[in-house]
Amino acid sequence: MSTSPSPEANAGTARERRYPHLRQDFAASLVVFLVALPLCVGVAVASGVPAELGLVTGIVGGVLTGLMRGSSLQVSGPAAGLTVLVFEAVQEFGLPALGVVVLVSGVLQTLMGALRLGRYFRAISLSVVEGMLAGIGLVLIAGQTYSVIGAEAPDSGIGKLTGLPAALVGAARDDRALISLGIGAGTIAVLVLWRWMPRPMRSVPGPLAAVGLAALVALLPGVDVATVEVQGLLDAVQPPPLGEFGNLGTLALLGTIVAFTLIASAESLFSAAAVDRMHDGPRTAYDRELVAQGAGNAVCGALGALPMTAVIVRSAANVRSGARTKASRVLHGVWLLLFAALLPDVLACIPIPALAGVLVHAGAKLVPVGALAALWRENRGEAVILVVTATAIVAVSMFEGVLIGVALSVVKTAWETSHVRLEVVDKGAGPVQAYLSGNATFLRLPKILDNLEALPQDRPVELDISGLHHLDHACRSALENWRERHTGTGTPPVRVTTGAGEDLVKSGV
Asked: Which residue ranges are recorded for the region named Disordered (predicted)?
């Protein structure tokens, strides 16, 4: 005798047909939430803004950007890579102006995506991007080390690095600083060693475990350490006053907006490319992803929160936890919202040195030491670009450092694409045959003229330029002048031909 399925079974079957991956996405969302929580708070504190604003950005990145089309599995939120830039902007323009910067940057990102410019970010030299991240990582490590020992960090990147030894020596003489250093160092140790813990323990994300253990230590008697200041979610959200938009005409603010826009866009789209290599699902639509990032940043700016980018740490955790659709990243935003609304006082238990330790660890992962060694063996020019970009960011600023890296990359590419070769065939009798091939540009003009002027002056010369892919105006003029000078010595006129056998002047090459 057959029995019909119960209503509950029918409902379950219908739900599974409509949301076939709900179980995997739900589990992944919890993991991403636990990874994102300490990072959102840590980035906010390191940026010099209320901790709740980091959660606001994580919520918007999960719920709003997560719902939009673009990349289905990468997760957005406040990023360690923008911490240095945000901190400098807050120090220079004030917290109310940060909302204006983020809002306008989001609008620009949306426009770039609508104009289908997202794909062009893939044309940025990888060495420049890695140099940018390395520079950010070095400044982040140096700056957050001061927070680990409870000291005030200098303003400049160079000052942060050069002042570290004295700061650490001073901390060794201060009991409170030593306690703070112990908590920060312990946090870093847990993060580094967590991958070797037993599998049941590793079900808890490393950042959450490290911060949670630090919070327990901070509760012990006699442990005096700074903790996160809590304002409340609604009190922390402060939309930018209309008067702040009047500063958009200042060059400094516009430069900061451009820096935010380009760096956040590049980081998000490069993260998308990396995430695509981790799974077999739908590929990223770069222009749509840029629109999604722009919409999220526009909302974050309107709320006075931190800027967002796609974050590779959270995105990798999402993929590795078995996420199949965008539902996982949306749900992670919902969990952040529930935490911020229901358990805000928990933030007050988190020690500042522990958050600083999390960011020191994150900054260290941005410095590609192993990749730099391999790059030096393969292509020293690219390795130099990486090092110069990182150094310029530390020594000058983020925006100028990236511009220097891009300029070096363009110069290197122009130099490499202007390779030219002169092959001379001299049979001892008759004309000297010379074959010029490659790309003859003004960059290689001195080399070309040196080689041509070294040809015998008392012999006829036949110059074949059919192998040239490009001949710019400067080189063409120089070849004509050289031919006139060489012909003036009493030898037969130099014959310069193209592939069709035409004369240089007649062909107009």
From this structure: 485-509
> In the chain, where does the domain assigned CATH 3.30.750.24 lie?
420-507
Length of the chain: 509
Class of domain 420-507 (CATH, top level): alpha beta
C-alpha–C-alpha distance, residues 279 and 480, integer Å: 58
> Where does 274-348 show beta strands of DSSP type E?
309-310
Q: Which helix (H) or strand (E) covers residue 424, if one does? A: strand 420-425
Residue 284 near residue 272 (C-beta atoms within 8 A): yes
Helix runs in 321-455, H state only: 327-342, 352-366, 369-378, 380-395, 398-417, 445-453
% helix, strand, coil for the chain, step of 5: 70, 5, 25
End-to-end CA distance of the chain: 91
- How do beta strands 432-440 and 461-471 pair? parallel
- Tens digits of per-residue pLDDT, 226-282? 888 888 888 888 899 988 898 888 888 998 999 899 889 988 887 887 788 778 888
Per-residue pLDDT band at 400 (split at 50, 70, 90): confident
pLDDT tens digits, one per residue of 337-348: 999 888 888 888
Its pTM surpasses 0.85: no
Cβ-proximal residues to 295 (8 Å cutoff; 6+ apart), any chain: 64, 65, 68, 106, 110
What contacts 16, CB < 8 A, 6 or more positions away?
Answer: 22
